[in-house]
Amino acid sequence: MTSSFHITVENATLSVVLDRPEQHNVLNPQMMQELREGLMGHSTQSDIRVGILTGKGKSFCAGADLGELGRYNFDENPLEMLTDVIENLPFPTICALNGGVYGGGTDVALACDFRIGVSGMSCFIPPARIGIHYPPKGLARAVARIGLGPAKRFFLAAEKMNAEELKSIGFLDYLVDAGALEGRTRQLAEDLKALAPLSLKGMKSTLNDISRGELNLEEARGRQKICLQSEDFVEGRQALAEKRAPNFIGK
């Protein structure tokens, strides 16, 4: 039986591939739990520098399986729990959108730090057309990432947006032809892996806190101090003086 997703770690890169192409990579509660647990199991690996999330087939993800909604405990929504884990991974994450993204799949993408889309893709979020309420944390994340106006176009007007519109509202950071998706994703991943891990981890946490309106200056300044006292800061200054590329170790 084919697994519904695959997680691998290679060359300091955590890769997640959704693998239900015949069902547009729809997520059911069991799959969300298993994926969340799998990601949590890798979240403490100090050798991982970047994460990549993508899918197989014509769609990236069609969101939650609507036929399974009756099984949800909305006090512990499995989609919200999954996207919270994705957002809070300690290393930068890239969502390589191999195709269309719909419903709750949008929140999976927005929980990543960067989104690379392909020409011809589209995005559509249907709760208002079927009489349900999108997860509150997903609404908050959408407003934080793309702004209130575009979020209302998605959720209240139920607009379907094409790739160019998704780029223009800031949903996509990069837009490429389908054949260039793998190469552009690999390039961004390599660029991120060359940077100081403690700096990325600390600033990602602070930026996410700011986006949620939860900035704690004491905690943020604590992250600053960790970087200033690190071996990587010594290496960064030395590499700058010697006009060479730094070799960061995450310590």
What do we call the CATH topology of the largest domain?
2-enoyl-CoA Hydratase, Chain A, domain 1
Instruction: Give helix % range.
Output: 40-55%
Biggest β-sheet strands, sense, barrel? 6 strands, mixed
| Total number of strands | 10
Named CATH architecture of the largest domain? Alpha-Beta Complex
For the largest sheet, list the strands in their spatial order. 1-2-3-5-7-10
The shape, in one word, is globular
CATH superfamily annotation of the largest domain: 2-enoyl-CoA Hydratase, Chain A, domain 1
What is the string of helix and strand elements? EEHEEHEEHEEHHHEHEHHHH
CATH class of the largest domain: Alpha Beta
Domains (count):
2
Report the span from N to C terminus: 42 Å
Average pLDDT confidence is 95
- Range of strand content: 15-25%
What's the helix count? 11
Radius of gyration: 19 Å
User: Which structural category do the helix and sheet elements fall into?
Assistant: alpha/beta
Explain what the structure shows.
The chain is an alpha/beta fold and 251 residues long. It has two domains: 188 residues, 2-enoyl-CoA Hydratase, Chain A, domain 1 (Alpha-Beta Complex); 47 residues. The chain contains eleven helices and ten strands. The strands form two sheets. The protein has a six-stranded mixed beta sheet, sandwiched between helices. β1 and β2 form a beta hairpin. The longest helix is centred in the last third of the chain and has 15 residues. It is globular, with a radius of gyration of 19 Å. The N and C termini lie far apart (42 Å). The mean pLDDT is 95.
